[in-house]
Amino acid sequence: MIRLYDSHCHLDAPEFDADREAVLTRARAAGVARQLVPAVARPGWPKLKALCAAEPGLRPAYGLHPMNLGEHRPEYLQDLAAWLAAERPAAVGECGLDFFVEGLDPRAQREYFRRQLELAREFDLPVVLHARRAVDEVIAGLRRVGGLRGVVHSWSGSEEQARQLFGLGFCLGIGGPVTFERAQRLRRTVARMPLEHLLLETDAPDQPGATHRGRRNEPGFLPEVLRVVAQLRGVSEEAVAEATWANAERLFG
């Protein structure tokens, strides 16, 4: 069976509370042997820690998501440093910038983002990045802090922006949106990008692919993403699965 690494899945989300074990069983049956589970807010870290400790194949990342800005407090950055030191997770995140959602203070977003990048560098951990209508500013932030590695998940930027990230050693997370035929710019990027910078993801419970539109997304749906990526690149699914597994293992340890 093909072995897959879901590099971005919010399995700790309340949408999975009623049937999480069944979701995990379906994911394993689909070949998803490992998942990175990124945090979004400080109150959820203990739940995420317990979930990843109890289930083989789940790797935690701890961070403060820009869309949860209203839940964050400055002292949570100190808490994050303590958690990183004590837990040594797979990554810092999910963090980043979101200039699409109205009402999220850009100045506060930038401060939380900058400090989380600094913590990732300090603890020598990769960062899991959210960049919505903010790719150029995210890239600028990475350059300012320096010494970083990671992934921009749910990639939706241009090929030129992608090349800049490759030059910084970053990967792109590709998920459900690539399965929609209308996503022509994204599909061109995926077809042409270096395979060593490609990661597969679901972002479950969000962003289901074309064949599951309108449903809750699950990690077990990752083979749909794999199939489309392989078709776009003109290679076998096995080749993409093997390469993206190695990329995720190299990045997250």
UniProtKB/TrEMBL annotation:
GO CC field: cytosol
SUPFAM superfamilies noted in UniProt: Metallo-dependent hydrolases
Binding of a divalent metal cation 2, residues: H130, H153
Keywords: Hydrolase, Metal-binding
GO molecular function, one term: metal ion binding
CDD domains reported for this sequence: TatD_DNAse (cd01310)
Chain residues that bind a divalent metal cation 1: H8, H10, E94, D203
PANTHER family assigned to the protein according to its UniProt record, in alphabetical order: D-AMINOACYL-TRNA DEACYLASE, HYDROLASE
Family classification: Belongs to the metallo-dependent hydrolases superfamily. TatD-type hydrolase family.
Protein name stated in the entry: TatD family deoxyribonuclease
